[in-house]
Amino acid sequence: MKFSDETLIAYLEGTVDDDQATAIEHAVEDDPELEARLMALDSFAPMVQAVFEKVPAEAPKVELPEPQPVESSYSSGGPWHLMAVAASVAVVAVSATFWTTRPEPLGWAQQAAIYQSLYVPDTIASLDNSEQALKMQFDLAEAELGRSLNRETLEALPGMELKRAQILSFNGKPLVQVVFADEQGQPFAFCIIRQGEGAPSNDVNLAELSGLATATWSEGGYGYMLIGSNPQTPLEGQLDILTTSFAS
User: Is the pTM of this model over 0.85?
Assistant: First the structure.
């Protein structure tokens, strides 16, 4: 059956009768050329196509509810309804892709590295690291962590000047940042977080986080992290001392 452009436009505008609409819809199912003509005449088709082009090729599968039966696609909105459904499916697919591909929340080590990356020599140059100030800071930090910070060991780290012990928190868990200045006044940090009983133990992992050299490990319900002042900072000397001193 042949359909004129005028008839197809009338169908798109919803002004043909039910029999004519049904005939066009049945014909479109078996005639790609007729479908192409219909899409070319439809002013909404490019909008829907543009939406689908933005859907990633490997978008995750989305479980959609079973469609409810209707008497005819024309009586329930005809092509307008079909276009709305197509656009809705595209939006659902895009939304599902976002939620399944969004980055995982940052862990405590990444957050600590981001915080430390904001430090510059001037940040720590004027810190009060008097005996009285350090004693109060360490007493509070040790009480919060529930363990010793081995202050004598930290004060003896080669090439490091102890500057401060600061109490932070990550996901409700106490996290202590011990700050040092190296011989050039560059900031270093040693962080400890109380992870709790049953937390897994992990060997030392060297990585660059937020543009800083880092070493992380965990054991005995605590996580540890040493953070240098740049990506090439050598950490081995301090790391050997800290892993031994803080072994369970």
Answer: no
